[in-house]
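Protein Record: Sequence and Backbone Structure Tokens
======================================================
Scope: a single protein chain, as residues and as a discrete description of its fold.
Tokens: labelled as protein backbone structure tokens, with as many entries as the chain has residues.
Position: the record begins directly beneath this header, with no further notes in between.
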Amino acid sequence: MDYQDTFAVDGGGRHHADAWMHAAFDGSAGAQALWRGVLQLRLRSAADRIAGWRVEERTPQRLVVAAESWHLRAWLTWAAYADGVEVTTHVTSRNAAGAVAWTTLSPVHRAAVPGVLERARRRLRA
């Protein structure tokens, strides 16, 4: 693994991990544009996917989703707790292009995730 970070938000109430991911990314054209366009992640709609990401593990408290491109692999781990969620992003480069892409985009990612989680918290409290 080349990169890992973790962010958390409290105050959303008790919800399953997949509800948090849906609240964060359903209808999020900006995230889709970044994932598909810039990172070239192979995302597709299917029953076993959330926001195009393949579900690798799902329990009420934990959701692991993954996506790949020719130059990197990314996965998100959502861990729901009594009144919030923690999300960990993992990225592994497959080649130099992946390393350059993620090095360039990781500051944008770190700046965006707190806002994404806050939006999810507001949606779940509504």
